[in-house]
Design goal:
Blueprint lengths: L1 E2 L2 E2 L14 E6 L2 E6 L4 H7 L6 E2 L6 E2 L12 E4 L2 E5 L10 E3 L1 E2 L7
Parallel strand pairs: 3-9, 5-10
Antiparallel strand pairs: 1-2, 3-4, 5-6, 7-8, 7-9
């Protein structure tokens, strides 16, 4: 199904867009599609995922807000490194992404 050039299956604009190479990333144990040159946040939004982290005290969901790295709402654990801004981090083949709980913890 398509709505104004946007595929409803993966929410990416298709009309008139040339993408880089397609690959997969792992998000909370699930595989999603990403493209060369695309941020992790863009791949998550295209896959329909809106929650990137949960707050420390009340576990409220947080996702991408500003999209330019200023607000820090999109912090996730990326390749074992907590507090990484998904909107500023390019997706790479095989990268591991996890929803961050609270302030995040380093893998030891």
């Amino acid at each position: 199904m398509e709505f104004r050039g946007v595929s409803m299956a993966d929410r990416r604009v298709e009309k008139g867009v040339k993408r880089g190479r397609q690959f997969e990333i792992e998000v909370d144990g699930e595989t999603i599609v990403a493209y060369e040159g695309e941020t992790i946040a863009a791949a998550l939004i295209a896959a329909g995922r809106r929650t990137f982290r949960r707050t420390a005290k009340k576990k409220h969901p947080r996702g991408m807000y500003c999209g330019i790295g200023l607000c820090f709402e999109c912090m996730m654990v990326i390749n074992g490194i907590p507090n990484t801004r998904a909107c500023q981090t390019l997706a790479t083949p095989g990268c591991r992404v996890e929803t961050q709980e609270g302030l995040g913890r380093w893998e030891v």
